Amino acid sequence: MDLMEEIISKLRSIGARPTGSDKEREFSNWIEDKLKSFGLDTEVQTFNVVPTYSYPYIIIWGLLVLSMFLTLINRFFPFFLALVITFLEFRELDTFHNITNLFRNKVSRNVIGKNSDKPRLVIMAHIDSARTSIFFHPKYVTSPRTSMLLTTGSSLGVLILTFINLIFPLRLWFYIGLIPSLYLLFLIIAHIHRELFMGFSPGGNDNGSGVITALCSAKMLKEENIPFWVVFTGGEESGTYGAEAIEREYREKLKEAFILNLDNLGAGRLTVATEEGMWKIFKVKESWLNIIKSCAKGIDVDFRPYLGLSTDATVFLARDYNAGTIIALDERGFPVNWHWYTDTVEFLDKNILIDAINIVTNVGRYVR
């Protein structure tokens, strides 16, 4: 409890931690010092990140809208443009970066604590916090899955209509295409508004709660000399870049590991995500779920899909690792105070965090 209170105090004092910012770096330095004080071998991994996902997606959606308008003067190029951009967009949504790589103009870092050369358990939690958005306003927030389906459906709608226009060129397809184009234009305007007028979430729950759980679990597992790694990632909120960096550099050591991602654990009902993904849905392996079930006996935990935004675990699931996420959700299936100004440490439920720590430490003992 003393360590938990110390981390909460640090979260309160440091506040928002935007991707690639001085605050993110300051917090990662503090975490590194804590890991060293536990007696863990520490490593810092730096990588370039996109500070915000808004601008790359504004370009993606803008090019799709342009392709629809180009059907008024051409048959072939609009379809080719829509085909390429839709493919790249869907790869981005599956955590395989391409267009966003052109915007990596900030530096972020992962902090890794090691109690083994080749871990059986890898605990992950991201340290950055998100910029708020009207999409996450408590009065207007809707199902993230519905929003994602509208977005991908609009992109596919433009692609299909440019293809039909290629075969049967009629102005009718342009007029029908105004429907998905207008939705994409709405997204563009909303994300420009996000960048110009919205501030950053304090990140108490997202993901201060994950940091609390990971640090407290790491201290306990180290005291029991259990082989594990704990990884605090940067760049999650702008596109899971920290998870991508750790997977790329350490895939040979992590391929057989049990990867446990911790995100938004401080309020709501503890939930084990059985599926994740924004475009393609990735199922968590049954062996992973069975271990969590064994280690969560006596604790109130729900098992259900989490089909909102991607998590660090999504990166590993998309690449066929034994990975998954523990999260806490409200009655609507959303994280509490998600990406909003109210996401402060005052709303963290310590009893839920203790339950999450017990699950993580039980997993460490189980898989050792």
Topology readout:
Layout: H1 2-14, H2 22-38, E1 41-49, H3 54-70, H4 76-93, E2 106-114, E3 121-126, H5 144-167, H6 171-197, H7 204-223, E4 228-233, H8 241-254, E5 258-262, E6 269-273, E7 275-276, E8 282-283, H9 286-295, E9 302-304, H10 312-317, E10 322-329, H11 350-367
Parallel strand pairs: 3-4, 3-5, 5-10, 6-9
Antiparallel strand pairs: 1-2, 2-4, 6-10, 7-8
Provide the domain count. Answer: 2
DSSP strand content: 5-15%
Q: Can you tell me the residue ranges where pLDDT is under 50 for at least 5 consecutive residues?
A: none
Strand order of the largest sheet: 1-2-4-3-5-10-6-9
Head-to-tail CA distance between termini: 25 Å
Percent helix range: 40-55%
Radius of gyration: 21 Å
Give the beta-strand count. 10
The CATH superfamily of the largest domain turns out to be Zn peptidases
CATH class of the largest domain: Alpha Beta
CATH topology of the largest domain: Aminopeptidase
CATH architecture of the largest domain: 3-Layer(aba) Sandwich
Mean pLDDT: 97
- The assigned structural class equals alpha/beta
Order of helices and strands: HHEHHEEHHHEHEEEEHEHEH
Helix segment tally: 11
What best-fitting shape do the alpha-carbon axes yield?
elongated
